[in-house]
Fold this protein.
Amino acid sequence: MLTVTIHGERKEYPLNTTYETIANDYQEQYGGLIALVTVNGRIRELFKRLDRNCEIGFFTLRDDIGYKTYVRTANMLFLKAVFDLYGREAVQNCRVEFAIGHGNYIRPWKGLVSSPEAARAIREHMKELADRKLPFMKKSYPLHEAMELFRDQGMEDKERLFRYRRSSAVNIYEAEGYFDYYYGYMLPNAGYVKWFDVIPYEEGFMLLLPTKKNPTVIEPFKEMKKLFQTMKDSELWGRRVGLETVGELNDRICREGLNDLILVQEAEQERRIGEIAKEIVSRGGVKFVMIAGPSSSGKTTFSHRLSIQLRTLGMVPHPIALDDYFVNREDTPRDENGDYNFECLEAIDVKQFNEDMSRLLKGETVELPSFNFKIGRREYHGNYKKLEPEDILVIEGIHGLNEKMSYSLPEESKYKIYISALTSINVDEHNRIPTTDGRLLRRMVRDARTRGTSARRTIEMWPSVRRGEEENIFPYQEEADAMFNSALIYELAVLKQYAEPLLFGIPEDAPEFYEAKRLLKFLDYFLSVGSESLPNNSICREFVGGSCFHV
């Protein structure tokens, strides 16, 4: 018998007891389904077995790492259902493309038509597999055998990915003849995937999943047509340049480098910014360009580049940061933990902002404030503004799309832009890259460079940042007149050289170590490239340094 310590309590279990068995003994004590365990500080999947005296902890679906494990397993269950119903060719050409709300959009192979009947067939088969608790078997293969296996399966994207793998072995999951590879942990069987739905959407299917906050509830699907089209356009652009997966990106780096690709995508972004500027001017009467987006989406560089394009069209842009309208520190609301909540709307003096903007619109001269973050107070230093016929204010802040932020301004005087880094490249066809990972790495690199903030601190703050985005930005993104995707298809290969040393600096006993380890494993898929070829006005420069703008 082996001794296991859980919450300070010691219990004895036989050698080779599965961690799933131990988790079941403690499940009633947790509000969410247990998805993973920690064994002496190391994460282990539930089908692993007890082999020593140890201390065990648990991750549930309410924890980020547990929730991602559920999503990953649900994706494999969907693909297994496609494999059973439509064959190998169908599943090898399915692509898990991106997330819209709490659904994963999956583009099927050309022979599988998206329809209510097909969605129902996939959903019902997934339920059948879940009811009989189809096991997902994990096995380590030598690298060359794994490449041969996926070559035989027709999954060239995985074979290409493994060419650049440094380790000598690969973990592969198998479910009754269906083999697949996933970066990250998995649940032991299909029976854990209890909450999901499948609906037809556009040319593909939407796999609807619960939220981390409510992991046992499937909320009604909320369409986001503008976001979907923006993501789709990015996917199509990646397809046109032959870069849909990390393996293809690594091939390009090895064959010819990225100089031409960098110039082409920077030109593509400049073209899109120019289109937005033309639309603003062609509307007539627009005096306020409201720019909002989540953390590290590149808002500052975008606003500078947009201002340049507006100037080429005869406009005179003036930047305004909504942060300059923060209420004084002592008046800032606090969250449930007693900390200042700088991301809620009440942290902004909305009334003063509207008064100032309305007076400017009437042709009056207004002294604009600046916020002194050191002392936490709004100050005035003689920054007077009066709007001339060609003047336009470029206003950037997280509440820019919220109508309550600019309630007194006529709609025709406003043009709203949503910007985010919507990653379009996949690890492989079945492993999408969450947009939040790209933004987290961006922020980590920038904060270390400009503020001396450690990667550990950035990861620690990230859940709070994400909560603020969920509450204050994402609900309003469809209100935008234009969306701009700031993600660069090559940027993770550039960020890698800056992010890895920061992540390696997080100690093993820190709570943030698990996330650091996950990100390091993720970055290991990419070949690294230098930043020398980046133009000095690139959005990527906002994070790695060397920008021609004050960012």
Q: What stands out?
A: The domain at 2-60 is CATH 3.10.20.30 (Ubiquitin-like (UB roll)). The longest helix spans residues 259-283. Residues 500 and 520 are 7 Å apart (CA to CA). The mean pLDDT is 95.
